[in-house]
Each structure stands twice: as structure tokens, then as C-alpha cells.
Specification:
Elements lengths: L9 H49 L5 H14 L11 H4 L2 H9 L2 E5 L9 E6 L6 H8 L5 H4 L4 E6 L9 H5 L4 E3 L2 H10 L4 E5 L3 H5 L8 E2 L6 H9 L2 E8 L6 E2 L7 H13 L6 E2 L12 E5 L13 H22 L12 E2 L1
Parallel strand pairs: 1-10, 2-5, 2-7, 3-4, 3-5, 6-11
Antiparallel strand pairs: 7-10, 8-9
Helix pairs in contact: 1-2, 1-4
Length: 346
Amino acid sequence: MDNPPPVVTFSELFKKIYAWAQPLIDPWKRLLEAFACLKFVFTFVFMGHCGLVLSIYLLFTRFYWISLVYYIWLYYDWDTSCRGGRRVNAVLTWKLWEFGRDYFPISLVKTAELDPSRNYIVGHHPHGVFCFGAFFNYATESTRFSDVFPGINRYLMTLHQMFKMPFFRDYFMCTAAVSVHVDSLKWLLTDNGTGNMGIIVPGGAVEALDAHPGTHRLNLKNKKGFIKKALQFGADLVPSYSFGEVDIFDQLSNPEGSQTKSLQQWLTKICGFSLPLPYARWCPFLPYRRPITTVVGKPIAVTKNPSPTQEDLDNLHCVYVKALKDLFNAHKVNYGIDKDTALDIY
């Protein structure tokens, strides 16, 4: 008697169809990934200024009432970026973020549990050119932050000026982004209960100018503002490092003392944000497809001290820098960095 034909499950059938169609799907998927990546860059480079120009332009047209209504709304809503923002789950879980994540790809690694009964300030390093690791890991759900750190409500804290830009500010606050203003930190770490995580990128605009492939330079030596706030509000400190962040763009050569670097530093002081000169693939703003892995370290317990002395700041800063170096050294070999490479902190 002949054996009956094997039963093919729906899952197996789907896998066979997908394997057959994959050569047709992959080019379109890669195109979507590149589009998502460019969309992120162009949004943060141009959308704020375009929104400002548009709001002014409309005042001189028959649609002037749109800007007037918006300015009234802006006056009413001015402090929202310092009160936790206005995140929208549909934006946090936007499929486009996943395409952007897969372009590199970007991933999030936890090395220790975080207690939801505490509050945290995360120092994220390095800044890189566009902070891809910080944004995709902390401002969206593309790497499933809520599953990796259950019970922790995170806020990516960025320049306060970004939340003054018409239209862009409203879009940006739909993610998990808020202002890094002192009022925002106070609300987050005192008025909003516990289980909160504020992510700060201490290196900021200056560090972006040093984001050259293969380098690991951090503008951290004199960055003690976030240390002071951790002490004043009793928030535990957590080091975080994005391996691969500096490898996704080349920059025009700008060594210390060069005219290019001097001009960039001057513009940074005037504008409040840096003007790196990146390039990579056929489009200057489209980065290389290189992995970015954000490793979150163990929390450093901090005892609340409303009036810390300079010695208190220096001591905790030393503890934080050591923890960051230990995190870097423990994981660097796993991400293609030579074991003898050390962090250059200036």
C-alpha cells in the first residue's frame, strides 16, 4: 500500500513561497531601508528650519490664519517638551523605523536589570554624526525597548532649541523625545514618580565633529552637568555605548588646529549645534551599512545630595568614567575593535 503524501503545514508553505520570492523582495526591502534612513536624516536636518520658514511665509498669504492659530497653540503648548512630551504609540511603533533599524542593522543589548522603583540618567556615547543608535533604540520601539527593559519609561533628552521649531516640535514629541532643559529633568526625576530613564548624550555637538571611522573620542572630561543632576535628584547613573556609531560616515579631514575644525567650532558656538561634513555612499547623507550595537551598562547607585560640592561631582564623575571604560573594554572585541584600543576622553 502506498504511503500517503506528507502533510504540508501553512508555515512550511509560507517559508517555501518566501524563499522563492526572496530574490524579488530583497531589492525592494533594501530600497525601503535606504528611504527610511534618508527620511530620518532629512527630517532632522531640514524639517525644523522648513517649518519655521513655512510658518512665517504663511503670514503673508491668504492662509495667514493657519500660522496665527498655530502660534496660539504654540504659546499654550510651549512647556510640553519639558513635561514628558506627547508620545504616540502609533509613531513609536511605526514600521518605517524598523526598516531604518534593518538598514545597518541597529540592536540594543542589556547587561543588567534596572529596578523600576528607581530613576535613571543614562549617559549615551558617542554622539556620532546623527545619533542613529540613540534615536532608534531610545526614541522608538524599533528595537523593542519596552520588552528589553520592562517597567522602565524612557525619554531621549535632546537640545531644547529643537522644540522651538514650528511643526517639527510636534512631530518630534510624538516619539519618546523630550527637551534636556533643567525643567524637563526636574519633572522627569521628581514629579513623574519612579521607573523613569532620561537618556542624555553628553558629548553633544562638539563630539560630532570627531566622529571619524575607527576613532573612539569622547567629549566627557569636563561634562559634569548630568553628574550634578544625578546627585541633586538621586537618580542612578547608567553608561551606554553605541559600537559602530562612528563608522557609518566618513568626514572631511578636520584635525585639531586646522582651519576646517576652527570654523566648525566657531559655528558650533554661534549656532548651538555642530556642522560636520559627512559623506558615505552615493548620497552624502546616506550612511554605510555597518552594524550599530548599543550596549547598556550596569547602574551606578547614587545617593541624593541636593547641594553637591565640586569634590562630590569630581568623585562621581571618576566613578562614571571608569564604569564607561569598563563597559567599552568588556565588549569592544565583540564588535570588531582591537583589544588594545582605548577610549580617548578629552
